Amino acid sequence: MKLGHMSVPGDCNRISPILSHVGNKWAALTILVLSERPKRYNQLRREIETISQRMLTVTLRGLERDGLVAREVFAHKTPPQVEYSLTPLGETLVQPLFALCEWSALNCTEIERNQAAHDGEAGDPHASVA
Amino acid sequence: MKLGHMSVPGDCNRISPILSHVGNKWAALTILVLSERPKRYNQLRREIETISQRMLTVTLRGLERDGLVAREVFAHKTPPQVEYSLTPLGETLVQPLFALCEWSALNCTEIERNQAAHDGEAGDPHASVA
DNA sequence: CTGAATCCGCAGGGATACTG
DNA sequence: CAGTATCCCTGCGGATTCAG
């Protein structure tokens, strides 16, 4: 796959999984929350609030595996204290991710309107669609 | 959810679904491919190649619903010719999406190495991990 | 050519309970 | 506090078939 004038180095088949991985809901939120400063497990849980403990763990493991997030255990004993932080590589992801996040924030209202309008047309033939 | 100094207008709970939607593998690729120029159905199919016809249709419908992609039917008769193009709103998504795509392309090798290294440590205790 | 519809397997992801 | 393990359900997404 090629992108014409906007040449993307490498194969898009290699980047697409990565894209959908970091573009992932939980991963993206985690990166963004972590971009503020390193945080502990339950602190992340509280801040992302809608995340389940399972998905937080799974997401963190995945990001750790990618080398985007570092896990530091301060004491392997009472009470356990684990801190998660972005690696340098993870830091480089923040900006593009934030850009996309910003775009979403800026346009979510319009998108929601578009969706509602589109659904209205399709769902209700009696609507005043002319 | 707040992002501290990098204030994101609106609620992250509203943007996260959008983010995961446009960050979606097929949606992202479709937008990117369409950013080059408007294209027809089977042309998209060929260029994204790995996509199934079902997912292409589903993805296009979703993007259409969001108002990111426009669908234009040139003739509703023999042979049907349908062209898909980005809407102005869709155009605004190209840049941030491309930035993320670029990041993936730049770092996919390092990520793959990180993954391999991480898997090596965990998967094989006999590895020379010191 | 441009789809819609159906079947179906598999992974994502939530809830809950248990552990160190 | 910081996880792990299990259950289980939903939806993604591929393959195939039918239609205008």
Automatic annotation (TrEMBL), chains A, B:
Q: Which Gene3D superfamilies match?
A: Winged helix-like DNA-binding domain superfamily/Winged helix DNA-binding domain
- Annotated HTH hxlR-type domain ranges read 12-112
| PROSITE patterns to which the protein is assigned, alphabetical | HTH_HXLR (PS51118)
Which UniProt keywords are given for this protein, alphabetically ordered? DNA-binding, Transcription, Transcription regulation
Q: What is this protein called?
A: Helix-turn-helix domain-containing protein
Look up and give the organism this protein is from. Tropicimonas omnivorans
